[in-house]
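Our preliminary data section would be incomplete without showing what the modeling component actually yields. Below, a chain of 117 amino acids is followed by its predicted structure, encoded as tokens that our downstream tools consume directly.
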Amino acid sequence: MTDGVRRFHVGHRMSEMAIHRGTVHLAGQVAGDATQDVKSQTIQVLAAVDRLLHEAGTNKTRVVTAQIFLADLTDFASMNEVRDTWVTPGEAPPRATVQARRVRPEWKIDIVVTAAL
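Predicted structure:
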């Protein structure tokens, strides 16, 4: 821990999560099985977000912002079908959704979340 920063699942290039001053910062989460369609990948990504938030001691109702990166904006509606069922009614955080080339072309979605403890 450095200056009150706690890092989790630290690798050579990045950590999956860091907590500082009551704020949880997640790295971009991607699907473990990238052979699936965008709906299945979104389910996987949101499950990863849930696991990390739980590990931090918080949950999806405490998400402050979300950034969603789609490989193809034609997947926007399909992604929203899944995400809309995940978000707790009345607790939808501010978000941005953009199209971005992925490091691995088979990744269809990447979500970055910031949450309060």
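The helical segments are 38-56, 76-86. The mean pLDDT is 96. Preliminary results of this kind motivate Aim 1 of the renewal.
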